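Provenance

Sequences were taken from public entries as deposited. Structures were produced by running a predictor on each sequence independently, with no templates supplied. The record for N-acetylglucosaminylphosphatidylinositol deacetylase from Horornis vulcanius is shown for reference.
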Amino acid sequence: IALLIFRDLPDDPAVEWDTQLLATLVLKHIEAKNINLVVTFDAGGVSGHANHISLYSAVRYNVCKLLWVPPWAGCRVLVLESVNLCRKYISFLDVLISCLLPRDALFILTEEETEQAKRAMRCHRSQLLWFRQLYLLCSRYLVVNSLRLL
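Predicted structure for N-acetylglucosaminylphosphatidylinositol deacetylase:
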């Protein structure tokens, strides 16, 4: 299955993944691990990343077609809100905005959790392009995340 994933689901922001293939893989994982909550991207993929959008499409496909059927009937789905560019890069200042806007869940990270997320991103040196360096400095997603139920 690993070869299938690398060949058919390449890590590439310009490649849309096959919705049914990904939906099947996600559903198998939900069943195998008895998962009752899935957190994924919204239709905007946070940054327009095609892989992120494909994942949302696959999870949405599962919700519409399969998750309402036992044994998956109890699984809920939260999607991460994509925000405009200004909000995306105002870091902790977006906490105020996020608290005022409607959402189903709001996660505000502690300073320790923010630093842990930054350390995790730095482990992938090949991925740290200039815009990801900006992300590490100013992204609201390292401080606050608003989600809604799908």
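The chain has two domains: 1-82, 83-149.
The chain has eight helices and four strands.
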